[in-house]
Structures are given as structure tokens and as C-alpha cells.
Amino acid sequence: MSSFYPRTKELSRTRKSLSESPPSSPSPTAKNFRHDRVSRLDSSGADSSSDRPLGRTSSYTRRETRLAALNKQEDNTSPRDYKKMYEEALTENEKLKSRLDDSKQELAKIRTQLEKVTQKQDRISERSSVLESEKREKQVLEKRVTDMEDELKVLTELKSDNQRLKDENGALIRVISKLSK
Questions:
Q1: pLDDT tens digit string along 104-117?
Q2: Sign of dihedral through CA atoms 19, 25, 26, 27?
Q3: What predicted TM-score, i.e. pTM, was given to this entire model?
Q4: Domain spans of the chain?
Q5: Which residues 6+ apart lie within 8 Å of 39 measured at CB?
């Protein structure tokens, strides 16, 4: 247990010394490592833009190829043209902003179309519910009409029976009046 304690004490000292030291610039080996990584990506073909169809390359892939080109310039020890790089970054940003604006406009158009479609579906569902209620009302009315027709038939039969009975009653009254004279 005592051998473990000095070791952790030693680690904390090294951590302090690392955290207290000022940040250093990337070493030439780190630059070479980054350059090797980018060049490996380009040479492997997995992330190269030549495998993808034109117009479908992402900004990340374009940025990687740009970084690879810049790293090659670094290795050639040619001076950097910061103004040119700044202008290129500005133009790239403007292109991306315009694409973003176009995408936002397209999204707004799609949203309005979606809204129209949902409103249309709502109207259709309302119409279908109205049609169903109208169908029910129509069935109820048809049933009432058939009931009334049946009642009308019964009524006409009753009228004819009533008329026959009146005629018979009149005939009986005449017979009784002849007999009573």
C-alpha cells in the first residue's frame, strides 16, 4: 500500500507540470502526422471526392482537400498568402450562406405545401363525415317515406271501407224508412 502512494504523488506532480506549462506550438512531427493522415485519406480513395458524383461532395471533403493542399504548401516552405486565404474563406462562407438561404426558402415552401395538404385532408374528412351524416339522414327519411306510403295505403283502404259502410248505412236507412211507412 505504501508503494502505491508515492506513485500517485508522482503522477500528480507531472500533471501539474503539464497543466502549468504554456501551450506550445505544434511540433514538426505533429504537422507531419497531420499531413500523413490527410495524404493517407487522399491516397486510400475512401474519402476522396473522385469517388463521389460531382455536386454531391460535402463541404467537409472540400475542406479536407483544401487542408491537404495547404499542408503541401507548408512543406514546400512557400509563404502563406493570408489575404488570399481570407478572401477564399469569405467566398466559401457566402456560398454556404446562399445555399442555407435557398434551403430555408425551400423548407418554407414545403411547409406551406404540407399545410395545404393537411387542410385539404381536414376538409375531405369533414366532407366525409358530412356525407356520412347525410347518408344517415337520407336513410331515416327514406324509412319515413316508406312508413308514410304504408300509412297512406291503409288510409285509402279505410276510406274505401268507410265509404262502403256509409253506402250500406244509407241503403239500410232507406229500407227501414220504407218498412216503417
A1: 999 999 999 999 99
A2: negative
A3: 0.34
A4: 26-80
A5: 68
